[in-house]
């Protein structure tokens, strides 16, 4: 099967990454692109890297309605809260709509979306044909909905992708105890989008690492919902994002208190704090590493690093991989997971292409097999 793909919002960072990836996709024959800010211009005016590589692109950047009319599948890389009209048009034309904003991530739960994004749904009925598109979590649901008719994909957020993939095996196997799960995550500057803002101005972010939206980041409810869907027990989470002076990449460090037998005294655990890990702790860490390896053995884009390795954004750059490393604290009571993705690929455009492949029954890795770029 050959497809014509459309991208609404092609001049943003994630939109341009979609253009780059779909130009190399074996099943895509034409690309139709839309942008308000660059309408009527060729994509090379916004991104000169496409010079000489636009053979599949049909004309200049056009209106969104023209893209929907011409395409077999439509991607939207737009600000939150503005894509529902385009989704409705795609549903009426029986065309899959893959949305990179938060508009369809919460399904029928309009109250949560409204609380965190400041507006309600324009067309609530569209959630009847929408599904949260984290393939490793919802692959079967995506396939079922696609087979039953038109599908809208709520492409996951970048931080929730890294956090959910990192925690999922532990939650699914009941390893988490009753305490709070803590997610410390760091993101590159492209996570803020292409529109200029003071926080992303070079003098503000260069040579600087700082947390932002502490205790109030919009991805918190998405992470909480994912965790609750994996494990029946609802656990509190603390999610703190940090901005780091790199272009792309997310590293999420996840701290999960483990289920453990009661000790003879509350001070027992404290007595071991000043000691290095014991043989028992190391053996326990290896067992959990084996569990993670088995859990993801059939996933094409999740790589469990060899025991003792440490996940790094440098090793997933420009790829759709999520690298995960497994660790324990010195007492053996806290599981520490490092989860690394490229926020522009597995955290956005690459995952959207992965969802398209699932919808149309393509090889899931089609167009996504690039080896990570080290530099």
How many strands appear in the DSSP assignment?
Answer: 13
Question: What do we call the CATH topology of the largest domain?
Answer: Dihydrodipicolinate Reductase, domain 2
Number of helices: 12
- What's the architecture of the largest domain in CATH terms? 2-Layer Sandwich
Strand content: 15-25%
CATH C-level category of the largest domain: Alpha Beta
Tell me the name of the CATH homologous superfamily of the largest domain: Dihydrodipicolinate Reductase, domain 2
- Walk across the major sheet and give the strand order: 8-9-7-10-13-12-11
Give the overall silhouette: globular
Binned, the helix content reads: 25-40%
Structural class comes to alpha/beta
Mean pLDDT: 93
> What's the helix-strand series?
EHEHHEHEHEHEHEHEHEEHHEEEH
- Radius of gyration, Cα only, in angstroms? 21 Å
Measured between the Cα atoms of the first and last residue, the distance is: 35 Å
Largest pleated sheet: 7 strands, mixed
| Domain module tally | 2
Ranges with pLDDT <50 over ≥5 residues? none
